[in-house]
Amino acid sequence: MEFINYEQEGFVGIITINRPKALNALNSEVLKELEATIDGINLETTRAIVLTGAGSKSFVAGADIAEMSTLTKAEGEAFGERGNRVFRKIETLPIPVIAAVNGFALGGGCEIAMSCDIRLCADTALFGQPEVGLGITPGFGGTQRLARLVPVGKAKEMIYGAINIKADEAYRIGLVNAVYPLEELLPAAKKLAAKIAKNAPIAVRACKEAINKGLDEKMDDAIVVEEKLFGSCFQTEDQVEGMKAFLEKRKVDGFKNR
Ligand code: DAK
Fold first, then answer.
1. Which of 3, 29, 65, 164 for a ligand 1 pocket mutation test, highest count of atoms within 8 Å of Cβ?
2. Residue 86 shares a structural domain with residue 174
């Protein structure tokens, strides 16, 4: 692949968007390769993903403005559809995805980070949805996900005003979980991914599904989503071993994903 690198470190997969000449902007080819990479993840052997951008300046500087500038209405819709499909695949991937935001996360960059389960960023990161300055709305879910992740008034201020925010403000409003010096970001993201990967994979996956599906439901229905997923963990080898190890006052000798 030209624009996406994939590496596996133990149970953790690392996806790097690699188009530094355009600050990792998302054109059709990048989106196509990203989708193929996500579709190709081996869920038997991979328990968490880290998503980052190549270079020291940018995570993703948005959808590719040069490519978008000449789109017809129909092509624009198709481009938006592809982006939404890829971002939704990230959001609903059964295993957790951590965004390691190493710089600009603007437009589609902010939107792809928001499709991830957890965001960590470098102290140089910049987040924003500058689309209204280009004559368009956010097109890859920005109006929806930002308004769900941060206070709605803050989301509206950022989107209507095309106001970018720095890492410390992103942390203050809860858009990111933690801020690191750039060189510490990827190691921290990998460390968190490895910590997640140590836990019972079936249970972690059930937690992701419960949280994501439950958030779309009323509480009475949401709690049933959890009930079913809770039930589904029983009689798995990892549940039996996890509880047995506790009762025998010993550590689990590696969960098996069974
Ligand atoms: N697209 C294409 N090229 C980009 C780019 C982008 N988003 N961002 C940067 N580049 C390119 C620059 O054109 C430049 O290329 P060369 O001139 O060297 O060939 C190179 O990357 C380096 O950029 P700069 O020279 O501008 O670097 P600076 O450090 O001076 O500035 C910057 C960095 C990130 C502040 C600046 O590049 C910038 O403002 N970039 C654009 C950021 C932005 O507005 N992003 C949002 C894009 S809009 C939809 C689907 C999707 C979307 C909307 C609708 N539907 C179809 C419904 C999403 C929209 C967006 O994401």
1. 65
2. yes
* Residue of minimum CA distance from atom 52 in ligand 1: 139
Structure tokens at 235: 């009689």
Considering the domain architecture, whether residues 13 and 139 belong to the same structural domain is answered as yes
Out of 67, 81, 91, 111, the active site residue is 111
Q: What is the pLDDT of residues 183-222, one digit of tens each?
A: 999 999 999 999 999 999 999 999 999 999 999 999 999 9
Q: Same domain, yes or no, for 214 and 149? A: no
Beta bridge partners of residue 9, listed in sequence order: 12
Q: How many domains does the chain have?
A: 2
pLDDT at 124 over 90: yes
**Which residues fall within 8 angstroms of residue 144, CB to CB, at 6 or more apart?**
none
| Nearest protein Cα to ligand 1, atom 56 | 80
Prediction pTM value? 0.97
Which residues does residue 48 pair with via DSSP β-bridges, in sequence order?
Answer: 12
All residues at 6 or more sequence positions from 52 whose CB lies less than 8 Å from its CB, including other chains = 14, 15, 16, 17, 59, 99, 100, 101, 102, 185, 186, 189
d(CA 109, CA 6): 18
Active-site annotation holds for 217: no
**14-69 confidence digits (pLDDT tens):** 999 999 999 999 999 999 999 999 999 999 999 999 999 999 999 999 999 999 99
Burial (Cβ within 10 Å: 0-12, 13-18, ≥19) of residue 134? middle
Q: Which phi and psi angles does 13 have, rounded to 5°?
A: -100, 135
Ligand 1 pocket by Cβ (under 6 Å): 22-23, 25, 61-66, 76, 79-80, 83, 104, 106-108, 130-131, 134, 136, 138-140
